[in-house]
Design a protein that fits this description.
Layout: H1 9-30, E1 37-39, E2 46-48, H2 49-65, E3 70-73, E4 87-95, H3 97-101, E5 108-115, E6 118-126, E7 131-135, E8 140-142, E9 145-147, E10 159-162, H4 171-184, E11 187-188, H5 194-202, E12 208-211, H6 221-229, E13 233-235, E14 249-252, H7 257-272
Parallel strand pairs: 3-4, 10-11, 10-12
Antiparallel strand pairs: 1-2, 4-5, 5-6, 6-7, 7-8, 8-9, 12-14, 13-14
Helix pairs in contact: 1-2, 4-7, 5-6
Length: 273
């Protein structure tokens, strides 16, 4: 360990839930209220005052309960990298901002606590839908009730979600992954929120979530922790254990993991030749 951790696993989980709910309260004040938004890289990368104010409220809540932890967040002046030692909170104040600003209910407030770079607790609140997903040590819950990954193994019965941003350089990989899902699996769900997709895998609502490109920590860490807590498996494309700095993320119910990896590698190798 990089230092003494003042919170137990249960306390970390409680703080994650409370902070997510506090951020959700702020975000909901602005949802479907016609607020203006700015853009980061391009017109498909919006940011609103709801994102910024929700993150401020979450940080305030975390500072009250866990003042020594570093804050890693998408907005404002938070640091952008996960420390390899000590404790940290990774925050996405609104995951699925494109959905949020278009009045679509598929968006969430997501955060995870890490100790020496590894997640120990996470929560993702979807307030416009009414679901909250949370995971501590070896247990994932939906609205306070324990759940877990699916047990499906027949490829034709599997529903998978591609998790990609909208950078032009990633479009070829996105095409390859969606082509694989369309042709080899049962169905595809593109939700526009990586954390929502991963939470749904953790509780068996989806069977897999796939990204073959590097994603940010705030888009992935909480959900990846939930999938593992729910009995699933999360690796990179090579099959190595996924970390916040991995260059790809394959999350499945575990039963189908090796088959999905093999099929994806074959398809991507063919695309890249």
């Amino acid at each position: 360990m990089g230092g003494t951790d003042d919170l137990t696993a249960e306390e970390s989980l409680a703080v994650a839930r409370e902070a997510a709910e506090s951020g959700a309260e702020v975000a909901c004040r602005y949802f479907r209220e016609g607020i203006a938004n700015d853009y980061k890289r391009d017109r498909m990368d919006p940011v609103s005052k709801a994102d910024q104010e929700a993150q401020d409220r979450i940080v305030e809540a975390l500072r009250e309960r866990d003042p020594a932890a570093a804050i890693v967040g998408e907005e404002n002046d938070a640091r952008k990298t996960v420390p390899d030692s000590g404790t940290a909170w990774i925050i996405d104040p609104i995951d699925g901002t494109n959905n949020f600003v278009r009045d679509n209910r598929l968006w969430g407030i997501s955060l995870a606590r890490t100790v020496d770079g590894d997640p120990v607790a996470a929560a993702t609140a979807l307030p416009a839908i009414g679901d909250t997903y949370a995971a501590g040590d070896g247990r994932v819950e939906r609205n306070g009730l324990e759940c877990g990954v699916s047990d499906r193994t027949d490829p034709s019965s599997l529903i998978a979600a591609p998790i990609f941003g909208l950078k032009q350089r990633d479009r070829d990989d996105y095409d390859a992954v969606t082509g694989y899902i369309h042709h080899e699996l049962g169905d595809l769900r593109r939700l526009g929120s990586g954390q929502t997709s991963l939470a749904l895998v953790a509780c068996g609502e989806l069977d897999a979530a796939i990204s073959t490109v590097r994603m940010t920590a705030w888009d992935t860490v909480a959900g990846a922790h939930m999938v593992r807590a729910g009995g699933g498996r999360v690796t990179d494309l090579a099959g190595d254990r996924w970390r916040h700095d991995s260059d790809s993320l394959i999350a499945t119910n575990g039963e189908i993991h090796e088959e999905v990896l093999s099929e994806l590698r074959d398809r991507l190798d063919g695309e890249r030749i």
